[in-house]
Amino acid sequence: MACTKKVILLTGGTGLVGQGIKSAAEQNPQPNEEFIFLSSKDADLTSREATKSIFEKHRPTHVIHLAAKVGGLYGNMRANLQFFRINMSINDNVLSVSQEYGVKKVVSCLSTCIFPDKTSYPIDETMIHNGAPHTSNYGYSYAKRMIDVLNKGYNQQHGTNYTAVVPTNVFGPHDNFNLEEGHVMPGLIHKVYKCKENNTPLTVWGTGSARRQFIYSLDLGRLFLWVLREYQETEPIILSVGEEDEISIKTAAELVAKGFDYEGEFVYDTTRSDGQYKKTASNSKLRKYLPEFKFTPIDEAIRATCQWFSEHYKKARI
Amino acid sequence: MENGYQEKVILVTGGSGLVGNGIKYAVENGEQRKGEKWIYATSKDGDLTDLESTRAMFAMFQPTHVIHLAAKVGGLFGNLKANLEFLRKNIIINDNVLRTAHENNVQHVVSCLSTCIFPDKTTYPINETMVHNGPPHDSNYGYSYAKRMIDIMNRGYNQEHGRNYTSVIPTNVFGPEDNFNLEEGHVLPGLIHKVYQAKKEGKPLTVWGTGKPLRQFIYSRDLGRLIVWVLREYKETEPIILSVGEEDETSIKEAAEKVAEAMDFKNGLIFDTTKSDGQYKKTADNAKLRRYLPDFKFTPIGEALKETCDWFVANYETARK
């Protein structure tokens, strides 16, 4: 069985997570696995016909489904209807065409931002549908939640093994480093790079005391491959460092500064919101399966990402 | 632009079903206004799972208003078997209708949800703010999530495009033109059909389940009057529950007894407890409705059941069963 050829199709393969999976696969290749990294240039997944064409072309046995319409806070707030409809369309096309082409395993990608807004912490995999998500991105959130509902339907009706992962804050090479649209870590990286270039102090929004769990895209990639190969449940699995490895925004900024050998001053703009103090996600399910999994130490991961950013500044998404 | 003589064209999708006929009855018995044209579309007029077919239907009828009732529906056992289909088909139908309505500049759409889509683990009575507060009952999660997404899309269209798309939440509807099929239909039409058969065969009535679950039943003709009111007057995005009050909840056993009475059935009742009961209680709060319409009078249930049973007996050959 280990020698059966696997053709693994990755939608959204050129993004942050897709490239993390690529690096992980290249570090630990399996001879029977062939990976195909798709981008929007290869197919418009909002079209069922286009989705079928790409499946017809590649005949995958497995799918890692990362493609989505994504955006930062302001992008979402302006266009919840679009975020909902486009993502619903993409997800339904990918899952229904997968089933039609006999794909037995699809691993989709959710996010901790789709969890209920009013909730207790730490959050875990059983809590996804337990209340309405935050109003700022309800369109994106509900579309992602419907992946989990579809997975359940397909597995019950067709005996497939469709499932999903829930990463916490991902960072790494190939991220979106745009200061308006991007997330906190790439935002800090982009800012420190410019502050070093211009010899200016770094302004960090908020008090710096808010705490987050960050996961390096390469580690996420390694875990994605494990989920693809071994994880049999329908219920999603949170992929994250544990609560003990939560770091403050202040610490994150300090590590980014180290990553660039930046020695300028830090200024905390406390007129800016901190957001939530903690959004702890439980990784106990992951730890039950993989008690020995070692995450890349965060200072190493941040330094590697800073290096990548410096080397690829001209081509990075900024 | 508002002109009393400007024709309003109200398209009712799923117009030949239970609720569609309830609306039709209400419109033809007092609710119709001058300048209104009512169209009751059926699956023969277009396949709403197909976007082009939906567009063709709208092009043909040119509606200014839409009451969207069309859906893939089924009773407890129908849903249990095919949640994926119920989810996908209904999502596609709803997306096609709302987007095509929007494309055609339809300002008002009233869609139809159901109390069965509410969270399974919940406090009672349930109200309109609670729709998304937790997962629905496992037996019909596909149908439930698809219906919930109507509410999400209504919000999106209203926020982004200034529409007035909303929805109603009836409790258990019954009346003429229902689906009386014993596998697919709901509890009251199922009981009516069973009593009819049992009477003919000289046997007692077998009721599925323990008879203990409680339900609020709403007569389709009362629901019709209320949906017409919602279309004309109700401006909120948030749904509105359309139901008799909690004080008028009925157990399945009691419902069976009333049907027997309406059909003059005297062979007795048996409860098959090997069959599932479904949810025990789904008490819905009609306080919002009562705030808007404190004086609305529902048809007494005995009378409504008598009319429905009489209709079934008179139309047995052609009734959906």
Question: What does this protein look like?
Answer:
Chain A: Pathway: Nucleotide-sugar biosynthesis; GDP-L-fucose biosynthesis via de novo pathway; GDP-L-fucose from GDP-alpha-D-mannose: step 2/2. Chain A has a domain at 6-171 and 215-242: Rossmann fold (3-Layer(aba) Sandwich), CATH 3.40.50. The longest helix of chain A is centred in the first third of the chain and has 21 residues, at 80-100. The termini of chain A are far apart. Chain A is built from ten helices and twelve strands. In chain A, the strands form four sheets. Chain A has a six-stranded parallel β-sheet, with helices on both faces. In chain A, strands 6-9 form a two-stranded parallel sheet. In chain A, strand 1 (6-11), helix 1 (16-27) and strand 2 form a beta-alpha-beta unit. With 318 residues, chain A is of the alpha/beta class. Chain A has helices at 16-27, 48-58, 73-78, 80-100, 138-158, 184-198, 217-230, 249-259, 284-289, 298-311; strands spanning 6-11, 33-37, 62-65, 105-109, 161-167, 169-171, 202-205, 211-212, 214-216, 237-239, 247-248, 266-269. With 321 residues, chain B is of the alpha/beta class. Chain B has ten helices and twelve strands. Chain B has helices spanning 18-31, 51-61, 76-81, 83-103, 141-161, 187-201, 220-233, 252-262, 287-292, 301-314, and strands spanning 8-13, 36-40, 65-68, 108-112, 164-170, 172-174, 205-208, 214-215, 217-219, 240-242, 250-251, 269-272. The longest helix of chain B is centred in the N-terminal third of the chain and has 21 residues, at 83-103. The relative contact order of chain B is 0.14. The model of chain B has no long low-confidence stretch (mean pLDDT 94). The chains are: A alpha/beta (318), B alpha/beta (321).
